[in-house]
Amino acid sequence: MELQKPRGTRDFLFEEMKERKFVENTMRKVFETYGYQEIKTPIFEDLSLFTLKSGEGIIEEIYHFQDKGGRDLALRPELTAPVARIYLNQLQKAPKPIKMYYFGSCFRYERPQAGRFRQFWQLGCELIGGKSPDCEAEIIALAAQCLEELKLDDYQIHLGNLGILRGILSQDGVSADQQDQIMAIVDKGDVEELEKLLEDLKLDKKSKEILLELIGMQGHRETINDVKKIITGYPDALKSLKELEELLIMLEAFGFTNYIVNLGIARGLDYYTGTVFEIYVEGLGAQKQISGGGTYNLIEVFGGEKVESTGFAFGFDRVMESLKIQNTNTPIKSRVEVFVAPISSETKLNAFKIAQNLRKNGIATDVELVGRKLKKILSFADNSGARFVVLVGARDLENGEVTLKDMESGKQEQIPLETVAEILLNRINEPNNV
Ligand code: HAM
Asked: Given the CA of residue 112, which atom of ligand 1 is nearest to it?
């Protein structure tokens, strides 16, 4: 019988895990620099947490099941709804704004392809109880700083505001449900399907033309003026455009100006209300969106008071792939720095003691556990990336010494047993040994 992992899932081996860990830690540090605190939520939640806003339709895209008690549960497809739940359960009285970040796996029942998995990881944050566009500007600057710290050169941050399209649709009497339907198609980028739907919904001809023009508009600050000219007759849409303009001014103060205004951004999830943004990396193919977020009203939908909330999540796996295609090497640490090798079986226990001493001093150390001959130990130690081998021989021990072998230069020297840890710590921290 051949054991297979489930479709759309992956195993990560040692090197890849080291790379992922490095990227995770780099991003965590940036989130914490902006004052975010980490939270963890369950991998599964009540199914209703995800259907409340999005309707039963979303069940198709979710891993859901009944447990032995007959409860309808779902593997989380994302983390914004769980965080909104936590806020309602425990944090309503906390001083605002509340800044939370998370790193965890999510599950979506999608057709797997490059960059699209059934289990994938999100690293993201939610900022609850702040004010737009101040929060939005800070969050976008945070997302950009993460990518800069990772030295990812080539990415684009696209910004939009859903209030512009929705303002036009509302003025024409299009219901909220129908608007969600329209947004889903705008998100897919299928203009033909959109035209057909707008036709079916009997949208006013002028509004239809404006809508189709707007979703194709992209540019820098000047786009604001171009859009203003087109939507003069739509006061709500104009209000949202003003918000977008304010956001751009604030972004400048946060030191991020490399954005693209893009009114075609609709977002796949339907809890967003105002500012939205997505980050793209060319070269990733169809799944080029490495991050997405914006301002949303999920807490009200769950029965809470109106509280402004903004957030975003990186698709962690896509960030990893972007670093790979842009040849951004992450520094890889060797498995161990030191290998302790007994020269004969009689010094084995001494070797164990020396290894423990090194580990207690924070030095990543392996010790021979297979009883091999010295030649084989040395070749294994070399393979494991150890920079030093401590050779433990009976005669050396009688003199209170061990032999230290530098695997890079091949040099060997006797050193006092008492100072092994001290000497190794110094050598490992020497600048040419980083
Ligand atoms: P989302 O756009 O659905 O937003 O997902 C965020 C990111 O997760 C995407 O930009 C993408 O990079 C990655 N992603 C999504 N699906 C997959 C998949 N099947 N395989 C690999 N990566 C994937 C959200 O989930 C929102 N909760 C973000 C947010 C936070 N909005 C406000 N706060």
From this structure: 19
pLDDT (tens digit per residue) in 22-51: 999 999 999 999 999 999 999 999 999 999
Distance CA 274, CA 272 (A): 6
Inform me whether the pLDDT recorded for 431 exceeds 70.
no
Do 405 and 391 contact (CB within 8 A), yes or no? yes
> In whole angstroms, what is the distance from residue 84 CA to residue 92 CA?
10
Residues with CB under 6 A from ligand 1: 78-80, 108, 110, 116-117, 120, 122, 124, 126, 268-269, 289-293, 296, 311-313, 315, 317-318
With beta carbons less than 8 A apart as the criterion, state whether 286 and 294 touch: no
Enumerate the β-bridge partners of residue 72: 66
Question: Distance, CA 272 to ligand 1 centroid (Å)?
Answer: 13
As a dihedral over the C-alpha atoms of residue 389, residue 395, residue 396, residue 399, rounded to 10 degrees, the angle is 170
Q: Using an 8 Å Cβ cutoff, are 90 and 98 in contact?
A: no
Order of strands across the sheet that contains 72-75: 44-46, 72-75, 64-66
Nearest C-alpha to atom 32 of ligand 1 is from which residue?
A: 311
**CA gap 334, 417 in Å, rounded:** 25
Percentage of the chain modeled with pLDDT above 70: 99
Q: What is the pTM of this model?
A: 0.93
Point out the least confidently predicted range of 52-56, 75-79, 194-198: 52-56
Burial of 24 per CB tally in 10 Å (0-12, 13-18, 19+): middle
- CA dist 243 and 132 (Å) reads 8
